[in-house]
Amino acid sequence: MSLLADTAPRTLAEGLRVQLADEIVSGALEPGAVLDEMNLARRFGVSRTPVREAIRQLSASGLVETRPHRAAVVAQPSAERLLGMFEAMAELEALCAGLSAERMTGAERRALEACHEDLRRLIHIGDPLRFSELNEAFHSLIYAGAHNGYLAEQTIATRARVRPFRRAQFRNLGRLANSHAEHDRVVTAILRGERPAAVAAMRAHIMRVREEYEIYLGTR
Amino acid sequence: MSLLADTAPRTLAEGLRVQLADEIVSGALEPGAVLDEMNLARRFGVSRTPVREAIRQLSASGLVETRPHRAAVVAQPSAERLLGMFEAMAELEALCAGLSAERMTGAERRALEACHEDLRRLIHIGDPLRFSELNEAFHSLIYAGAHNGYLAEQTIATRARVRPFRRAQFRNLGRLANSHAEHDRVVTAILRGERPAAVAAMRAHIMRVREEYEIYLGTR
DNA sequence: TAAAGCGGCATTGTATGCAATTCGCCACAT
DNA sequence: ATGTGGCGAATTGCATACAATGCCGCTTTA
């Protein structure tokens, strides 16, 4: 049973957009890869029109970059810009955590605590992939707990744009335990309704996560 | 002389996107207005293709909403969502101000001070339109002073999405003076390099601005 | 009389063909 | 030998034609 109501794409362009976004975020399409309209059209068995539409939407969301009369390429931000994206992400997530401390309902707080406990178990099992999945769910609960749909969207979008530049997250099992300890401070602050503490704890967590990334060092 | 390097649009779709965005942000196209592809194509003397492209990009930026096989409509957020957008905008602008306090160069600080002084003069002249324009420039200086391009883009985008729901900003001249007094606290904190004070002052300013807006009260 | 089903019409989604622009290659001059 | 100019091929931008879907009014039946 999937909690995500992934509705079937109602148009070709929508399906292509989702699939291409997946490939970019997952790393199958590496930063700098060129998105040739004809190649993609042949590959997916459609005409150029829906391909163009999908590419334009990805461009607007920042995953790809386009220039007039040039092929689109998967976004390849400079190291400076990537740092800026991390900084913004840290502040957005911290804001969500702070608002969650003030606004989460009882049910939401219980769900967060339960998710946190599930993550604790996964440390001992030592399953980095499952941990990574549940970690995403953990953060999503905090976005939702802020009770601000616009903020949640912006935070999710920023997270997606940074995602292609993660490499081997939770490579070592020690990181799992550390991550959980950082989460613990966030959860404690949220459950106690302490907004400033929640903000500080989440900001520290994300900045710590940043250090785990291999920051892309290209010059565009 | 324009400080904005408004490059000539290199494609029809780009030109249409800019023009439609202008009309939405300025209020010429009111929230809820339907964007019929054929009508727009006839009106601009082009085919549906570039019109579609422009609409899709506007959809991705949040200014219009689209559903499959339905005409696009100018975004008409619920009152709750609009409040969320204001809240996010307040935090984003506050973050920019805080970072500006730490990172602005000497030249940037002098430019901010100069812009602030120009605004002071406009109070006495009593020119709400010019004040509004220069006010935008004032805030833009702070976005730039944060030295984080991604953050600046997100903040500008949020500001644009909120813009259609402003009505009669700076209606009364008293608001101009109040606004300048709030700016003054922001500028003082930034020039002193006091990040927390800058954050607090800007947050208070934006929340005050929100009160001046006529919040749209529709239920979508 | 009202509700449900059906069919025509209008609008969006997709495919295809043509025009415009960019880039690479080659010749040629310095 | 190297830099510059122009020509050609390939790709994107745009226009147009066709297909598919949603809307709306009508008819029909309970």
Question: What is the makeup of the main sheet of chain A?
Answer: 3 strands, antiparallel
* Approximate helicity band of chain A: 55-70%
Shape of chain A: elongated
Which structural class is indicated by helix and strand composition of chain A?
mainly alpha
Protein chains sharing the most extensive interface: A-B, 25 and 25 residues
Total number of helical segments of chain A?
A: 9
What characteristics describe this protein?
homodimer; mainly alpha; three-stranded antiparallel beta sheet; 69% helix; elongated; DNA-binding
Characterization of the model:
Two copies of one chain form a homodimer. Helix content of chain A is 69%, strand content 3%. The first copy, chain A, is mainly alpha-helical and 220 residues long. Chain A is elongated. Chain A is built from nine helices and three strands. Chain A has a three-stranded antiparallel beta sheet. Chain A binds a DNA duplex (30 and 30 nucleotides) through residues 10-13, 36-38, 46-50, 52-53, 68-71.
What's this, in brief?
With 220 residues, the first copy, chain A, is mainly alpha-helical. Chain A has helices at 12-26, 37-44, 48-61, 79-103, 106-125, 128-145, 149-162, 173-192, 195-212; strands spanning 34-35, 64-65, 72-74.
Helices and strands in order:
Two copies of one chain form a homodimer.
Chain A: H1 12-26, E1 34-35, H2 37-44, H3 48-61, E2 64-65, E3 72-74, H4 79-103, H5 106-125, H6 128-145, H7 149-162, H8 173-192, H9 195-212
Helix pairs in contact in A: 1-3, 2-3, 4-6, 4-7, 4-8, 4-9, 5-6, 5-8, 8-9
The structure holds a DNA duplex (30 and 30 nucleotides).
